[in-house]
Design a protein that fits this description.
It contains 16 helices and 36 strands. By secondary structure, the protein is of the alpha/beta class. β21 and β22 form a beta hairpin. The termini are far apart.
């Protein structure tokens, strides 16, 4: 009898590289492939086939495939989604333009707004109205909906978003409209706000529903093609998809709500960092993920990443909050900037080096790739200052051309500054590091955190090259580089729980707390979440029994925004109103320094997550330093702390064992990335093979 398939595959598509990882019993292998931009699924299959051949892995040995992609994000940013229409309540058709009715840059007379996903000619209003309490003030005009269906067909609409006032609680008119449109538009994607985002605040609910409709035909087609290609090479294992909230979901659910995949790749990295923080006993951690196109920073406290239900995509103004498209989805809270290996450097009119946010991407890529790229990038700069071995980049799959990198940097940066290429490259690296440090500082300050108290977990193909210098700028004393850091997000997919979050907007004042109604609502939400999670349990995933995580959004009555308060997983009783109130007041006091005793408190939204965690290891036992490693060779590398080229020891990570010690200045090289250990830092190998960099005592800030 054949053993149960045990190999687990994960694939992460980034803007520059597609990372594929396989774990098979006690074996692990990874591949880094240039993203095939025109057909991203081809790169995934290429990487999988490469690893299957390397490990002699048969298709029947694969038990599960987990996937994350930036395709939905790119479609929104590049405006390459479906031709989408919007159907809404009569009188509110302009809400998508009105937004929050405020300017994100008050003194900029020429500020831009993100391009509308739905042009005015594809917005339609329907006579209907349901009040907030469910009373039907005006019945749905079904004849008007039929006329809209005819109009949509003539305009060639490919997707329709339906969003009516108060549909988050009373969805009857949305469902009636959907039924009529389906009868006339059989091949058109239709999304309801009551299903995509059943929460208060019309603008965010409508914009999220529109965005889901906009990307759904593209994402559903892509995921179905990928599933077909996997089956074509003999892999019949279930395909799961990483969500932006840090969990994985089934293929069907991903096709239905692709808007929840917006930050799926970075979320995998945050899950990897959170697991590693728990393993190594780190309470405050900054996850630093730097790939080929962007850099991401996420704060992790007590082994859990910060989370949010608000996200903004496609910002058009200097990455300024409010200048993008607001989405109301579960996300891991992080900041993302255009700083990656492919970020392009140039000199502006004031004679300053600027980096990104545009990227050379995978095609044509940095100048050193010798694939037609001519722009000077971060990868070119790292090559010129000798941080990267040109013969072993990406495991030798992409041999680099140092001469091309020097030429591009000299032309784009060096000549304008009157400096030779080496110093221009050093300046580019310093600027991109400072950009990332500024983003991390602001992200921490906005959340009331002291960034210097955190340890850093660095992963992604570029992060270990920059991590120690970034730590210097942020006042951090420890950097941890996990095993296989270059493909960290893909490994994070394999650690992510099978989960699904359901949110419902239902107002309930604590003064008249209705425990029976609250329990009824939570039971309904549990059934909805379990319907998504249960089909995936036992299909290639080794998961623990599912758990419920409950929380509520609360505010003083009359306020415009809420605080999230966790609930215990048990049936609620009348006495819980007092406990919930105490938790809210304690949280409010800690943030605002005051409690409003004379003002009532209300719950505005209920959140429930069903999560079945994958099995992970326990805490890592600290390793006592065994012996200082003697390097095999050395080369001159630019050290930004010393401001000059310095002789760096060169070590291969594969030669190091738990307890091995490497004193800086040194480079620890591996196939997918390299870790820079500057002078004043010491690296040792932990029991889980992570590289732990600690600042020397006299070098601490």
């Amino acid at each position: 009898m054949r053993a149960r398939p045990s190999a687990r595959l994960a694939a992460d598509i980034g803007g520059t590289f597609t990372d594929v990882v396989v774990e098979w019993d006690d074996r692990k292998a990874s591949a880094k492939i240039l993203t095939t931009v025109d057909a991203p699924e081809r790169g995934v299959i290429q990487g999988i086939q490469q690893l299957m051949a390397e490990l002699d892995l048969a298709p029947d040995d694969v038990g599960v495939v987990i996937h994350g992609t930036t395709l939905a994000t790119n479609a929104l940013i590049e405006q390459k989604g479906a031709k989408t229409a919007f159907v809404t309540t009569e009188g509110v058709g302009d809400l998508l333009d009105m937004g929050f009715e405020k300017r994100y840059a008050h003194y900029d007379l020429f500020q831009e707004r993100p391009p509308a996903l739905v042009p005015s000619e594809l917005r339609f209003e329907v006579p209907e109205r349901i009040a907030a309490d469910g009373d039907v003030l005006k019945p749905l005009d079904e004849d008007a909906v039929r006329l809209i269906a005819v109009r949509l067909a003539s305009l060639g609409a490919e997707a329709v978003a339906i969003g009516f006032l108060h549909a988050y609680a009373h969805a009857d008119h949305e469902k009636q409209t959907e039924a009529i449109l389906k009868a006339h538009l059989a091949d058109v994607t239709i999304c309801l706000s009551s299903e995509v985002c059943p929460e208060i605040r019309e603008y965010e609910r409508f914009s999220t529903t529109v965005a889901n409709a906009y990307v759904r035909p593209l994402m559903a087609g892509y995921l179905e093609r990928l599933a077909g290609l996997l089956e074509g090479i003999g892999i019949k294992a279930p395909l799961y998809v990483m969500m932006s909230g840090g969990g994985i979901t089934t293929l069907d659910q991903a096709c239905r709500l692709p808007i929840r995949l917006i930050e799926s790749g970075p979320a995998g990295g945050a899950i990897l960092a959170a697991n590693l923080a728990r393993e190594m006993g780190e309470d405050e951690v900054m996850a630093f993920d730097m790939g080929g196109t962007t850099a991401k920073v996420c704060l992790i406290t007590s082994g859990a990443p910060d989370r949010s239900r608000r996200f903004e995509v496609a910002r058009v103004y200097r990455d300024l909050k409010g200048s993008g498209l607001p989405l109301r989805i579960p996300v891991i809270d992080m900041v993302e900037i255009g700083a990656g290996g492919g970020s392009i450097g140039r000199v502006d009119r004031l004679g300053r080096i600027t980096m990104g946010p545009d990227s050379a991407g995978a095609d044509p890529g940095p100048a050193a790739y010798n694939r037609g790229g001519v722009c000077a990038t971060v990868t070119d700069a790292n090559l010129v200052i000798s941080r990267i071995d040109p013969e072993r980049f990406a495991g030798g799959a992409i041999p680099l051309k140092p001469d091309l990198a020097k030429q591009a940097i000299q032309r784009d940066v060096g000549d304008a500054l009157g400096a030779e290429s080496r110093w221009a490259a050093a300046g580019m690296i310093e600027i991109v590091d400072e950009n990332m440090a500024n983003a991390a500082r602001v992200h921490a300050i906005e959340r009331g955190k002291v960034i210097g108290r955190h340890s850093m977990i660095a992963f992604g193909g570029s992060a270990p090259l920059h991590a120690a210098r970034l730590a210097d700028k942020l006042g951090m004393n420890r950097v941890i580089v996990p095993s296989d850091a270059g493909v960290g997000s893909a490994i994070g997919f394999l650690r992510a729980p099978l989960s699904y979050e359901v949110v419902r907007s239902r107002r309930m004042a604590l003064a008249v707390f209705d425990a029976a109604e609250a329990n009824r609502l939570l039971d309904e939400m549990t059934s909805e979440a379990m319907a998504v999670v249960e089909p995936g349990m036992g299909e290639g995933l080794n998961v623990d029994p599912p758990k419920r995580h409950l929380s509520v959004d609360m505010r003083y009555i009359g306020q415009g925004h809420e605080l999230t308060i966790s609930l215990q997983d048990r049936p609620l009783g009348v006495a819980d109103a007092t406990l919930i109130k105490a938790d809210f007041e304690q949280r409010y006091q800690s943030i605002y320094g005051v409690v409003l005793d004379h003002v009532g408190i209300e719950i505005t939204a209920w959140s429930l997550t069903i999560s079945a965690s994958t099995a992970t290891g326990g805490r890592v036992t600290p390793v006592v330093a065994a012996a200082t490693v003697e390097p095999a060779s050395s080369r001159d590398v630019y050290d930004p702390g010393l401001g000059d080229m310095v002789s760096y020891k060169l070590c291969r990570r594969s030669d190091l064992r738990p307890g091995s010690v490497v004193d800086g200045p040194a480079i620890i090289a591996e196939d997918q990335t390299s870790t820079v250990v500057p002078k004043g830092w010491r690296a040792h190998i932990a029991d889980n093979l992570a590289i732990v960099l600690d600042r020397a005592g006299e070098n601490q800030p």
